[in-house]
């Protein structure tokens, strides 16, 4: 079975319900969710199953949800039925609380890194933030965008921060605090989010 179609050779691609340029804001948005999914897959290959069965379950579910999110973003038909629902956000919020409760307390921003899995999860977190910005650009351009997609990606970046911290903690490596940072974390280690994120 061939995977090439030649239909994109002139710089156009297909949405669900339209054809647009490959540099369209909508393509950038759902393409970045695909990039995010790939980094999550990479992180999963680095997490030992014995210590991280719960995270691996989380991340596999998230991979499916990112496919749903990308499909919702690519659908421009009047009959769009979004696959991603609020229950996915509720699960992420519960898991964030659990993971941050397990993580050692911190007071300042931390530097990405420590262990390999943690570094990869931090990369995924930053890609999630970029996906979020691109979804906002799409919304600000007047495009119809499922609001749940923006909410989900926002919460997912928080989950990935928590997961990156747990990767270090369970592998016996401490987070390195950014020494020039003010104290920006509450007692739980959750960011105050003064920047509105």
UniProtKB/TrEMBL annotation:
Keywords: ATP-binding, Cobalamin biosynthesis, Nucleotide-binding, Transferase
GO biological process, one term: cobalamin biosynthetic process
Pfam families tied to this protein: Cob_adeno_trans
Reaction(s) catalysed (UniProt annotation): 2 cob(II)yrinate a,c diamide + reduced [electron-transfer flavoprotein] + 2 ATP = 2 adenosylcob(III)yrinate a,c-diamide + 2 triphosphate + oxidized [electron-transfer flavoprotein] + 3 H(+); 2 cob(II)alamin + reduced [electron-transfer flavoprotein] + 2 ATP = 2 adenosylcob(III)alamin + 2 triphosphate + oxidized [electron-transfer flavoprotein] + 3 H(+)
InterPro entries: CblAdoTrfase-like (IPR016030), CblAdoTrfase-like_sf (IPR036451), PduO-typ (IPR029499)
A GO term, aspect molecular function: corrinoid adenosyltransferase activity
E.C. number: 2.5.1.17
Highest taxon of source: Bacteria
Catalytic EC class: transferase
Family to which this protein belongs: Belongs to the Cob(I)alamin adenosyltransferase family.
Record's protein name: Corrinoid adenosyltransferase
Native species: Edaphobacillus lindanitolerans
């Amino acid at each position: 079975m061939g995977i090439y179609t030649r239909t994109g050779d002139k710089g156009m691609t297909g949405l669900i319900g339209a054809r647009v340029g490959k540099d369209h804001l909508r393509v950038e948005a759902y393409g970045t969710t695909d990039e995010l999914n790939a980094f999550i897959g990479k992180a999963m290959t680095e997490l030992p199953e014995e210590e991280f069965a719960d995270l691996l379950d989380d991340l596999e579910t998230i991979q499916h949800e990112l496919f749903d999110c990308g499909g919702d973003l690519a659908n421009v038909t009047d009959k769009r039925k979004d696959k991603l629902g609020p229950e996915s956000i509720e699960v992420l919020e519960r898991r964030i609380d659990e993971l941050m409760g397990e993580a050692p307390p911190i007071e300042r921003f931390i530097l990405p890194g420590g262990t390999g899995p943690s570094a990869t999860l931090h990369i995924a977190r930053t890609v999630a933030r970029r996906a979020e910005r691109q979804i906002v650009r799409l919304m600000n351009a007047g495009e119809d965008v499922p609001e749940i997609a923006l909410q989900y990606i926002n919460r997912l970046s928080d989950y990935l921060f928590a997961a990156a911290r747990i990767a270090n903690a369970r592998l016996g490596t401490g987070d390195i605090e950014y020494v020039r940072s003010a104290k920006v974390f509450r007692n739980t280690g959750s960011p105050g989010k003064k920047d509105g994120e």
